[in-house]
């Protein structure tokens, strides 16, 4: 199994397709899979920038421990790997470089 395959729910190939908004752009994804998996499947790897060094951050542990996939979901902070996709979800990146010392 490839790492791309591991990012999807088993049996999700027949799942309902829904649209979420990512940084203002519509993205068609499978309902029920995690936001992280859905974005990864659409070629989106960078979810935020590090407050130290300003490097890109994305999915890492995929179980909520590392918090590298922190995003805004409908105006609230959430971990992309722990948030299931549903219709009308609005996901935005967080620029933690603008808030040094508050994270990491």
TrEMBL record:
<dbReference type="GO" id="GO:0016491">
    <property type="term" value="F:oxidoreductase activity"/>
</dbReference>
<dbReference type="InterPro" id="IPR001041">
    <property type="entry name" value="2Fe-2S_ferredoxin-type"/>
</dbReference>
<dbReference type="Pfam" id="PF13510">
    <property type="entry name" value="Fer2_4"/>
</dbReference>
<dbReference type="GO" id="GO:0051536">
    <property type="term" value="F:iron-sulfur cluster binding"/>
</dbReference>
<dbReference type="InterPro" id="IPR036010">
    <property type="entry name" value="2Fe-2S_ferredoxin-like_sf"/>
</dbReference>
<feature type="domain" description="2Fe-2S ferredoxin-type">
    <location>
        <begin position="16"/>
        <end position="97"/>
    </location>
</feature>
<dbReference type="InterPro" id="IPR042204">
    <property type="entry name" value="2Fe-2S-bd_N"/>
</dbReference>
<protein>
    <submittedName>
        <fullName>2Fe-2S iron-sulfur cluster protein</fullName>
    </submittedName>
</protein>
<keyword id="KW-0560">Oxidoreductase</keyword>
């Amino acid at each position: 199994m490839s790492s791309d395959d591991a990012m999807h729910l088993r049996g999700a190939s027949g799942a309902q397709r829904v649209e979420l908004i990512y940084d203002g752009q519509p993205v068609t994804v499978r309902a029920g899979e995690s936001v992280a998996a859905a974005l990864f499947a659409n070629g989106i790897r960078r979810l935020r920038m590090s407050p130290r060094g300003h490097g890109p951050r994305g999915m890492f542990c995929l179980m909520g421990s590392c918090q590298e996939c922190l995003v805004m979901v409908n105006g609230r902070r959430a971990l992309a790997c722990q948030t299931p996709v549903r219709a009308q979800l609005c996901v935005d990146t967080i620029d933690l470089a603008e808030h040094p010392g508050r994270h990491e």
